[in-house]
Design goal:
178 residues, mainly alpha, Arp2/3 complex 21 kDa subunit ARPC3
Length: 178
Amino acid sequence: MSTKHAGRMALAGVLTALALVFLLCSFFPTASLALAAIAALCGVPVVVELGRRAGLVHYAAVTLLATMIALSAEGTGVYIAFFGWYTVFKSFIEGKNLSRPTEWIIKVAVFAAAIAAYGAVWVFLLHMPLPEELVSWMIPLLAVGVCVVFVIYDVALTRVIDTYHSRIRPKIRNLFRF
């Protein structure tokens, strides 16, 4: 195995472990969603340096390990349902050279489907009741609010990726020798 390949595999392993640490810390109720999003950021260097396939392997490894040992079903569930694979999906969609509006329509539609599936699993499979304070007229407002937060997350993720390319990548490449 070449030094270059070994360095990339070491980077993927370190980032997988780091993502798992963030998910393990998500047992704090107020931080579970934020820590799931931060854990997903560990996939950015994996996708950039090793490609989408390695990004999916990273996602699968974190998902498997987090499912076995994570303390928070909410943080782990959101990572599995959306945050974990979204970096790979974003790379795929943005690599297709679609128009900006088409990209955003696809991203928001996929996000809405993922969140709806996540909610359906919680309500119908796990039999978790909806909060009593949540009345039917609030659900559309909540959906719009969540989509706005998603757009903010996507823009922030783009900036993180740009920062990784311009500032962090040269240091990582030197550290891991690839």
